Amino acid sequence: MKERIYMYYTNDLHSNFKQWPRVAGYFKNEKAKREAEHQSCWIIDIGDHLDRVHPIAEAFKGKANVQLMNDAGYDIVTLGNNEGITLAHEDLFHLYDKANFQVVCSNLKSMRSLEPEWLQPTVHLQSVKGVKIGVIGLTAPFNAFYNLLDWHVEAPFHTLEKYINELEQVSDIIILLSHLGLNEDQEIARRFSAIDVIIGGHTHHLLRRGEEINNTIITAAGKHCSFVGEVILTWDHDLNKLVNKEAYATDITHYSNDLQAEQSLLVLNKEADRLLGDPIIHMENPIEVKWFQHTEIMQKLTDTLKNWTNADCAMLNAGLLMDQLGAGDVTFKDIHRICPHPINPCIVQLSGDELLKVIRASFTKEFTELKLRGFGFRGEVLGRMIFSGLTVKTLTRSNGEEYVEKVTFQGEELVKDNIYRVATADTFTFGRLLPEIAKSSTKQFFLPEFIRDLLAYTLVQNFA
């Protein structure tokens, strides 16, 4: 006798709630179908369901995301970095208090005396015909951020070594929910043959029909839930073993919306407007925002960053502010609207030579016009870099492009081997946008404050 077992999953929604009613409708239909056929199925999320780019996620600090997953019938979730490092400790500690699903993350630990009641290192499931399934979850170890929030994420491979043997003793099938990224998932598949399925996320990779390495099938469904994932496992009860593994990602952008989910979002949007609607200042004049020009608001914000972090100098890209502010009352919703990014302030240490290279790179057309997606940035283009504590003199070439002629700090040119404490957005500590910043061996992050918290302070101090 053969039994088919179904797993449906999402990853990296990032609070893209426009797509959510389709997700909810698809899962409700599939779950009803499997239950009518008396087949086992579970609905799973692989993390980054939450993203404070959306007013609902901002207003409710992620608890509305949990409510929506409850309504859609989720069974198990793990945490992504957006759940882990964009909330204050207490907000994450209580994020899943009212969850109707199980939360599994084996490598997340509280650095305080208590662990959340909802946090489980492993989860054990059983199919309708008795197949035992062990589930383990892992999240990316961004401890430079987590530790500042009194959490610690253990090394994924060390964590697997601790739990896999235990799971093998009590499970017929082992499934890893991995918010680590494709490269890590592939390496895990090479090293841990006991894992049958890795359902992944974090790097937003889309595997339409899965990828097999050794004994493991790897799957992931991209980002923003344009696709949702399905894993089908076939267990042979006569042979007492798993005989087939399938993985698919289905495009649901043309599917119908679930009306209940639409209604829930309308209610949540209205309540988010109320929660974020208190005025913080009244302005007599509008504030102009320009991505490729120097503006007063960006200068004042960059000054605030320098002073607030007590850095030697500061630099911020004008694309952080996405819209104008009109005259009249300004609310937290307005601030969130024009600066929705989950980006934290940070300080990096750079030599004078490195700082000069960074400044020169920031004036190139490739940098200012880059349509960045990710690293916390949720805007359109990076825009012009604005500086505080530095005087940057530029000239314009015949082709219209600026180049840096001279940079001074406290009236003197940068000293090649001197070390400068430079405040900026943590976006630039990732990837290859500004390599000298990303490679800096000394980085100091400021959490849980976002750049928009400094923007609110700047408005109150300078524009009220």
Automatic annotation (TrEMBL):
<keyword id="KW-0378">Hydrolase</keyword>
<dbReference type="InterPro" id="IPR008334">
    <property type="entry name" value="5'-Nucleotdase_C"/>
</dbReference>
<protein>
    <submittedName>
        <fullName>2',3'-cyclic-nucleotide 2'-phosphodiesterase (5'-nucleotidase family)</fullName>
    </submittedName>
</protein>
<dbReference type="InterPro" id="IPR029052">
    <property type="entry name" value="Metallo-depent_PP-like"/>
</dbReference>
<dbReference type="Pfam" id="PF02872">
    <property type="entry name" value="5_nucleotid_C"/>
</dbReference>
<dbReference type="InterPro" id="IPR011240">
    <property type="entry name" value="Pesterase_YunD"/>
</dbReference>
<dbReference type="InterPro" id="IPR006179">
    <property type="entry name" value="5_nucleotidase/apyrase"/>
</dbReference>
<dbReference type="InterPro" id="IPR036907">
    <property type="entry name" value="5'-Nucleotdase_C_sf"/>
</dbReference>
<keyword id="KW-0732">Signal</keyword>
<dbReference type="Pfam" id="PF00149">
    <property type="entry name" value="Metallophos"/>
</dbReference>
<dbReference type="InterPro" id="IPR004843">
    <property type="entry name" value="Calcineurin-like_PHP"/>
</dbReference>
<keyword id="KW-0547">Nucleotide-binding</keyword>
<feature type="domain" description="5'-Nucleotidase C-terminal">
    <location>
        <begin position="288"/>
        <end position="427"/>
    </location>
</feature>
<feature type="domain" description="Calcineurin-like phosphoesterase">
    <location>
        <begin position="10"/>
        <end position="205"/>
    </location>
</feature>
<comment type="similarity">
    <text>Belongs to the 5'-nucleotidase family.</text>
</comment>
